[in-house]
Amino acid sequence: MTTSAAGGGTCPTAWSSTTPYVPGDVVSYAGHTYTATYYSTGAVPNDPASWAVWRDDGTC
To answer: What's 8's domain CATH number?
Structure first.
């Protein structure tokens, strides 16, 4: 599922703190698209402590 972004592009489904993510899952958070690089639940994208869990794929 995708949602419309302010710039007219599309963003993937928003990140949720209660969803378990597996490598390859794609989410949006704070206007960016992130891809999971490791298994996680609650690891916040864009948090310096989560650098090994999420890859920032740029704005959406």
So the answer is: 2.10.10.20
Look-up of token digits 């972004």: 5
Predicted confidence (pLDDT) at residue 7 exceeds the cutoff of 80: no
Structure tokens at 8: 């007219």
What span, in angstroms and rounded, lies between the C-alpha atoms of 54 and 33?
10
- Cα 14 vs. chain centroid, distance in angstroms? 7
Residue 9's pLDDT is: 64
Each residue of 16-57: pLDDT tens digit?
999 999 999 999 999 999 999 999 999 999 999 888 999 999
Nearest to 57 by CA among 12, 4, 3: 12
